[in-house]
Prior knowledge:
By secondary structure, the protein is mostly helical. The chain is built from 5 helices and no strands. It has helices spanning about 5-25, 25-30, 40-60, 70-95, 100-120. The chain starts with a helix and ends in a 7-residue tail after the last helix. About 20% of the residues are buried.
Amino acid sequence: MNTKILMVSSAVFLVAMGILFSFFSQEIMIFLNGNVDSITLIFLQILGSLYLGFGILNWMARTNLIGGIYSKPLTIGNLAHFGISVIALLKIIFKTQTHVEILILLTITYAIFAICFGYVFMKNPGKLI
């Protein structure tokens, strides 16, 4: 598997999510439930900064040999993030009636990344192309 494509695509996805949550958190809250409270707003902005940081980390590591001894923590971190998020999204899909199409799209995206990082974690690293 070409891990450079995986790292670039995950970085782009995470940075996009980070920008959305950091700079458009109030608009997201209004769209999702119509209520804007300051505590949820600040948590969404903090979540956005986490997404940005993780996306930048993936971008900076895009040329590394992912899956090797030095990048194994990066692989495990991505696998944990995307895998645990899939479980959380699946739980909420079955409990909610609103915005299900957005949740399904996010779940599919997260599942693809989780499967890819799981594959990279299980296989020996190969040369980047």
